[in-house]
Fold Intraflagellar transport protein 56.
Amino acid sequence: SGKVPPRTRPAHSNSRRRFRGFPGSSGDAVPPRPKRLLLGEGRASLVHRVIMIPSRVVRSTATRAAAGSEKEAKEAKVTNLQGYISSRDYQGALTLLEFNRKSGEGDEISNLKWMGYCAFHLGEYQRAFDSYQEIISLSRGSSASEEKGSDGPVVPTEVYLYQGCCLYYLQMYKQAEEKAEEYAQAEEKVLEMRVREETSTDSALREKRRQLVHSKVKGADRLSDEEVRQRIAKEIKEEHSSQKAPELALKNRLLFHVAHKLDDQEKLMMRHQDISESHEDQLSLAAIHYLRSHFQEATDIYKRLLLENRDDLALNVYVAMCYYKLDYYDVSLEILAVYLQAHPDSAVAVNLKACNHFRLYNGRAAEAELKVLADLGHNLGGNNLIRHNQVVFSMGEGALQVLPPLVDVIPEARLNLVIYYLRHEGIQEAYELIKDLEPSTPSEYILKAVVNASVGQELGSREHIKMAQQFFQLVGSSASECDTIPGRQCMASMFFLLKQFEDVNIYLNSIKAYMYNDDDFNWNHGISQAQTGNFKAAEEALLLVQNEKYKAEYCYISWLARCYIHNGQPRNAWELYLKMDTSNESFNLLQLIANDCYRMGHFLYAAKAFDVLERLDPDPEYWEGKRGAVVGVFQQVIASKATADDLRDVLAMVQNTSNPQVEYMLRIIRRWCEQNRITV
């Protein structure tokens, strides 16, 4: 959609110019975010194993049989759990795990790990975090009671990393970074303990030396004990790194995304260097590109991965998301259809389809797509993303109830709330919401520009106007936006603020075909055309405006009246005045009609306007205007350009006037009428 340049009022009006809100639509619908694969999609990044520990020693055939039955029952439950996980029924898996835990089935730590995993994939990040925290508490309690004298609590180190992932999704980025560091420290401690254990005895050193000699390592028999220890430590570290490779990659991905969220460019680049060619790492890199608005780069990665993994249908959603962001809505829908054919009840995919329909058609079409989810039993009210988009699709309905709590959850929520305030004259509220926002996307730059222009015009602040001009120019002149509809409207907006209306028209004319039914566009285009004297085109544009609220504003009425007058339709301008209530604005419109009609030679309506003005305010200038207009009508009658009825109308306006000039003027007019057999 296009972006709305500012409007201006007629030169005679003292009212300030104002924006019509955010460019061309009610706001931005939010497509799904690309997955970061921090805890994986139920696959490689996090592997939980159910640990089976016999509860007693098998002593007889009977007890063996009982144990066998128990084992079979447990294996059945494990299989059932794996079935839930495989089908991604995380709620079902979580229910089973809670039942197992209450009934004492399975290993406590394992159950909690799986509970954290399932809660994470359900988006219940605090619940997942609490499950992992309980593992830490249980592990430390067990260590205190069973391993007194040990060097520290035996906590599964990966739990710290999983907590970091939960904190990331809870938007606690610094705490997530600290958890990743805590994981690294715990791993270092485990490694040190293992190295110390395996290098502390003479027998271990002798065994290692024997292995080296057997492997025919040169000089193995002459190695000192310290050199042997170093070799053992090196091998242990290499083995550890190999075993922990998935977790270390997850840690790097987590810190990669944290660096992006904290806008730490140095750490971001450092983590980027450690991104491998693995499937998960490449997905994470593509997600970062997407989040940084590098949509083409993200598309290239997703498409390459899709070629390598044809069966990974979710990649179609990611590619479709990128094409949505690149404004290729038809292409996005075509690619998305592949995934929807296999998963028609996917909330993420249906939401993206609705966003595409919103851009291609309208909010009603988008809402119809979301209704599919409701019909399938989805609770739309429980999904923040869909609740947000429902507000956008309905042109802001319910915005004040839905958007404020989502401002720090969904980035677009802040922008759309700003749009809502702008559309409802809440300029100061909009400014407070956006003043501290550092723009990073074209939409954010444009919205900052619109708000600053609105504030500048409201307060008469040149500083805000200048800032708006700079933001508009940044977007409109950028290589990525200069040939887009928003980019061209930004340039038009900049020139509008600079009052260079010839340039405004060049840009607006270039996108006119795409904005035919856009009231904001037609408003601005009409005024800009009028400013350059092209009143015919200005009238056509202004008459396309359908919004009744816009059409009731004095700014619109006065510009349309001026167009009517300059296009030879003074009667239409006069009817605009007759429809207005008595007010300062109606008085100003009378002045406009009187002066413009006089200037354009529409003397009958100039006389009518001056007559009303004189009765409202006995200013000598109004009498002089009326007198001149009456004479003008008389001249037009003589030239056969006006009718006798017109002359009778204007004579009725002056014949009861006490001004001494009236008698002389009436005598001349009546004499001519008698000579030409015209009854007055």
Observations:
- The CA atoms of residues 81 and 93 lie 6 Å apart.
- The longest helix spans residues 173-199.
- The mean pLDDT is 84.
